[in-house]
Amino acid sequence: MPDTMSAPEAEAVPAEALRGRGWKQAALQPWGRNTTAPCIAARPERMRELWAALDVPEGRALLARGAGRSYGDACLNPGGAMVLTERLDRILHFDSATGLVVAEPGVTFADLLTVFLPRGFVAPVSPGTAFVTLGGALANDVHGKNHHLAGSIGEHVAWFELLLPDSRHLRVSAESDPELFRATIGGIGLTGIITAVCLRLVPVPSNALVVRRTRMPDLDHFLAGFAAAAEASYSVGWIDALATGATLGRGVLEVAEPSESPVAEPSPRSRSFPIDAPEVLLNGATVRAFNELYWRRAPMEGRQQVLPYRRFFYPLDTIHGWNRMYGKRGFHQFQCVLPFGPGEMALRRLLETISASGNASFLAVLKVMGREGVGYLSFGKPGYSLALDIPARAESPALFATLERITRDAGGRIYLAKDSLLSAEGFAEMYPEAHRLQAVRARVDPDGALSSGMSRRFGLG
Amino acid sequence: MSVTMPPATWLVLGASSAVARAFAHQAASHGAALLLAGRDTEDLERQAADLAIRHRVSATPVAFDARDLGSHAGFIADCAARSTGTLNVFLAFGVMPEQAEADRDPATAAAMVEANFTGAASVLAALAPVLEAQRGGTVVALGSVAGDRGRPRNYLYGATKAALATYLQGYAARLSRSGARVLCVKAGPIDTAMTWPLPRLPFMATPQAFARSLWQRAERGAGSVYLPRVWWPVMGIIRLLPTRIFNRLDI
C-alpha cells in the first residue's frame, strides 16, 4: 500500500497497547495527498479480526476506510483509529435471475466488472474509478455517468449489513430501518462499519458501449448538448477549465448506449505514474496545451466508437497513481452540483474564477444530475455537477472559499467524497438533513465511538 | 502432467491466510477444485463462496486444526475421499508470535512449535500414503527465509521453519520414488496480517504477486525455492556472514 508509511510523529499510542492486537502506527493520506494523518491502523483479513478491531486501543475514535479514494479527510481520522476494509473482499452470493450480488465491503468495482461483465451484468451505477470499494461507494453514495437516469448507488442497494461499535451486527434495508438506511448511505462511515452489501446489478447485451464524442465550442452549446442527451443512458462532459471569454466552458461531450455487439477487449495494461512530478512542470502553459490537445482530439462533427465498459467508465485507471502528477503537495478536488436555472450563471462564475486564479487544472468534468439521493448526506440533486482538480498551494483555501460562496449563493452543494476545505457553516447550509444523521448516530453510537477528520471539521463530533 | 489439468484438487491447509487465499485463487483460475482447511470455518464458507462465484469451480470448507494431531489421519482420509482427480496440497499454516512473548511464556513457544512443525510433520505423514497411492501430485509447503539463519528477532519461528525445511528434504526424496513432487518455498516477508504490525520490511511482496510466482513454480518445480527471487542472493550472503559480524547486525 503506497500511502501507508511509518509515522514517527504519531507516537501517542504506546507500542505496548498495540502489541499482538493487529494495530500499528500509520500515516494515511487521502487520494488528493494534500495532508497526512497520523493514526493507528488495523487491516482485518476476516470477519473475526474485524470484530476484534472494535476493541480500539485507548478507546480512540474509529473510522472504516476502503480504497482511500476520497480526496480529502472523509477517509482520514487524525489521531484516531482506522480500520482498513480492503482485505474483506469476498463475493458471497450471486443470483443470475435477479442480478442481486452480495459482497463484502472491500470488493471493488473492478472485481464486479471482471467477474460479472462476462455473465452479462454491470454495476447499476459506477464511479469514475474502478478501484473504489463497495463499502466506500455506499458510505459516499457515489454516482456515475448515468445519474440523470439511475440516481446514485444507494437506490440500487437492497440491503447492507452494518457492524456497530458495540458489536451489534444488523442487516439494514430501506424497509427494516429507514432512518439507519438513510443515515448510512452517504453517511461517510459515521454510523458503523459496513460488512456486506446486497446490490442489484443490471443486465447488459454485451461488454461494450457505443460512445459518441462531440466537440462543444462553449458553455451554452454544452448545456444544450446535455439537454439534447437527456435520454442517453450515459453522458459526461470534459471541460477545458482554462478556456476564457468566448470559449469559456468549451469541451467534449460524451454520450453512450449499451452496444448490442461486443468488442474484443485487450487485456488491461496499466502503467504507474513513476514519481511525484516536479511542480515546475505543472504550469499554465503545459496544462493549457494538454487541454487544447484533448479538445481537438474530438472532431468538430463528432465521432462514434464502440468501447469496452472499462475504457468508458474508468478512463484514468490505466495510469496507477495519477495523483502523483500534482507533485508532493498534492491537490484538492472541487465538485459541486448547482440547480438548473440559477445554476447556469453560477457555473459560468465558477469557471471564470478558476480560470482567472491561474491555478492550473487539467480537464474538469461536467455532468447532469437527476435527483436527490436516498441518504441524509447524499450529494445528488437535480442540476449541473462540476468537478475539477486544483493543485494544493498556499492560496487554495482562499480560492475554495470563493468557490464555496458561489456554490452556496446558487443553492448548490459540495460533494463530501471530494472535499477537504468546505466550511462548517457551508456544510450545514448545503446538508440540511445532517441533524437526522446525528439523531441516528445518537441511537446506534451513543458513546460517540465513530468519528473522522471530516466529521470533526463540520462539528459533527 | 501439469497440475492444472482438470479435474485436479488442491487441498489448502491454513486456508484463511492471505497467502493461502491468493494461492487458492490461482489454483481456481486454472480450473482446480478446492478443499479449504482451517479452524475458522465461518470464514472458509465465505472464501468457498467467493472462489466458486469468481472461478466457477467447486470449493469446499473442511475443518482442520494443525495442533489436533489425533485428527490428522481421519482428516486426510476425508479429504482424499472428497477430492477429484489428483490431490495436491498447499501447506500454508503457521503462526509467528513475537520472540519476546515466546521467551516469556513457554506455552506460547510450545504452541508455535506444535503448529508450525509438529502439526505440519503430522499431517504430511498422514498424507504421504495417499500421494504414493495416486503416484503423483504436488505438495507445496510455506517455509521462510527466517529458517536460513536464526536472528534475535524471531529465532524460534525461524527454527520451526528450518525444521520444516529439513523434514521436507527427506519427505521429497521419499515421495519422488512414487512420482509426487514436493516444493519448499522459502518466503520473504509478505504483506499480510502476520507482518502488518511489524515495522516496514524489505522486498515485501503482495500476496497476489507471491501466489502468482508460487503457482508458476508449483507447476514444474521441486526442491526449494526463494520467493520473491531476490531473497536467494540476499540469504546467500546472510548465511555466509561470519558469526562475529552477524551478531552485531541489527537485522
TrEMBL record, chain A:
Domain FAD-binding PCMH-type: 33-204
One GO MF term attached to the UniProt entry: FAD binding
Keywords recorded for this protein, A-Z: FAD, Flavoprotein, Oxidoreductase
Stored InterPro entries: ALO_C, FAD-bd_PCMH, FAD-bd_PCMH-like_sf, FAD-bd_PCMH_sub2, FAD_lactone_oxidase-like, Oxid_FAD_bind_N
GO cellular component: membrane
Species the sequence originates in: Siccirubricoccus deserti
Superkingdom of the source species: Bacteria
Keyword GTP-binding on entry: no
Pfam families reported for this sequence: ALO (PF04030), FAD_binding_4 (PF01565)
Name listed for the protein in its UniProt record: FAD-binding oxidoreductase
Record keyword Transferase present: no
